[in-house]
Amino acid sequence: MIIFDSHYLHIQPGGYFVSGGVYMPLPEHLAAIRQEIYYHTEEYRQIIEKEPFKSTFDQHYFDPLKTTPKGFPKYWEHISLIRNRSFGFGRNLTEKELLSENFIEKSAQVFRLLLPVNHFFNRAIEESGSV
Predict the structure, then answer these.
(1) Residue 68 has what DSSP assignment?
(2) pTM (predicted TM-score)
């Protein structure tokens, strides 16, 4: 079952971007995602910190908490990964990119890069039973 297969294309005068991930999830989904990141930290880091994902998505829609989420150790070395209230990744586009002949193909390539992180989030939610 696919819960999140988030691909978003934003076009407005003077602003264009592509993005995906999970934006403003339900509280039970957010808890499941945080837990999955906590228990599978290295897998998550491999997805978001390796190339070409890291250099492609230079915009992050995280809305982090200032404190540690309840139930997690305050001094965990990767606490910044689970403080987020959203887990969105984006890339700004230029007008030239938007109007190029191969825009659809280029966008599809960018969206394919989101598949591993979306699968990670889907697994978290499915396994938690909060579907």
Answers:
(1) P
(2) 0.90
